[in-house]
Amino acid sequence: MQRSAGLYGSLIVDVADGEKEPFHYDGELNLLLSDWWHQNVHEQEIGLSSNPMRWIGEPQSILMNGKGQYNCSLAGHLSKKTSLCKLRADAQCAPPILHVLPNKTYRLRLASTTSLASLNLAIGHHKMVLVEADGNYVQPVTLDDIDIYSGESYSVLITTNQNPSMNYWVSLGVRGRHPATPPGLTILNYHPNTARPPSSPLPIHAAWDDYPHSKAIANKILALQGSPKPPTRYDRRIYLLNTQNKINGFTKWSINNVSLALPSTPYLGSIKFGLKGAFDHQSPPENFSSEYDVMKPPSNPNSTVSSGVYKLEFGKTIDVILQNANALNANVSEIHPWHLHGHDFWVLGYGEGKFSEEKHSKNLNLKNPPLRNTVVIFPYGWTAIRFVTDNPGVWAFHCHIEPHLHMGMGVIFAESVERIKNIPQAAIGCGMTAKMVMNNSHT
Ligand SMILES: O=C1O[C@H]([C@@H](O)CO)C(O)=C1O
Asked: What is the first-listed, main subcellular location in coarse terms (predicted)?
């Protein structure tokens, strides 16, 4: 859970020399989004791993560029629940300020490293034109507000064409979980105004459980014309059922009834050097019972722990159907942003209830699905993705919510590892392979 403790940053990849972006902007702004707890991550981990489990609860603050407010809000005068923060520029709670000139277009880069929170960003009086998602261009689409799930990144264009004698709020609210945290706020400061808090009302976010609103945004994100298209057929389709479970009284998350426990020896070295006992050699199931009722708590909540991997052959088209379900408590199903290492994948579609081969397969979007590395599953829904195994390695595919991964919500793809010639020493520095590094360095 290092990310929850603050180990994160943004990496901006420019277009290659001589290449042009398919949109124009005059300036660039960045907002790195996160959430923050007062309890340290070690205590959080102990709570999550205890029986009974102690949940981390909602964050104390929502952060933008590492800054947030606590016990007060920049917009305190607009809400009866919080007091007004004193806006001293040197105060720890001083808000981030985005300085803009009137009548310009800015590219606003957004990325979420949240530990838990799904977010919605809105800018008072300004629309956003979405142009890029997870490093891939999308069909430009105008939005009033945008959802950002943990692990995702976006670029939106904003045009500073509003009354230049005013400043505006950039507000970041929580989605999908009953919020107990005031929105994170940033000031959009039109030059040459002083950077005081805007007197205009805060932008309004949709209700935290307005899933149709979130689904409408997700369905508007489509690949820009001319983007790489997915193969029209798949070689292998893996179904991953997400459930909350119990193992000897401990609360876990499982995929096809297997809760991931990462081994202490890195997979790459274990597989390459054929180490016995470094991880479970039985592969996890590729499917789940057709009888499973995704609308109800698991009828048998017990599950198993494993460090097994899905072995993927080189050059194949793999579909994954992520299937959400009811958690342990009745009438609860949560959002999970799934993130894949080593690949971008095409998002072929989202749907309600249980995925059905007959009903849903033919309606998947093969025409202009967006390429992403993170995709959400909505409560009680499914999400279909496709990727091609063209990048040998051992890749985690997991819920980007830190406590959920800690509780086992992930799988491992071991992709044509035999094609990897040399493993960097840094990748085999611990567990059983650490000895091999030492031996190597002595010879
Ligand atoms: O993993 C989780 O545990 C809690 C709850 O299900 C039990 O307290 C919660 O909201 C999660 O997302």
From this structure: secreted
Q: For residue 404, which atom of ligand 1 is closest to its CA?
A: 1
User: What is the position in ligand 1's atom list of the atom closest to the CA of 329?
Assistant: 6
What is the tens place of the pLDDT at every residue in 358-411? 999 999 999 999 999 999 999 999 999 999 999 999 999 999 999 999 999 999
Domain-embedded: residue 301: yes
Q: Read off φ and ψ for residue 267, nearest 5 degrees.
A: -60, -40
Asked if residue 188 is part of any domain, the answer here is: yes
**pTM of the entire predicted model:** 0.95
Q: How far does residue 251's CA lie from ligand 1's centre (Å)?
A: 9
Domain shared by 205 and 247, yes or no: no
- Co-location of 78 and 136 in the same domain: yes
CATH number at residue 69: 2.60.40.420
Distance of CA 42 from the midpoint of ligand 1 (Å): 18
Three-state SS for 41?
helix
Pocket-testing residue among 49, 58, 243, 244, ligand 1, by greatest number of atoms within 8 A of Cβ: 244
ipTM value for the complex: 0.96
- Give Cβ neighbours of residue 176 (< 8 Å, ≥ 6 apart): 118, 208, 209, 211, 214, 334, 335, 379
Tens of pLDDT, residue by residue over 231-259, are: 999 999 999 999 999 999 999 999 999 99
- Ligand 1, atom 5: closest residue by C-alpha: 55
The tally of domains found in the chain comes to 2
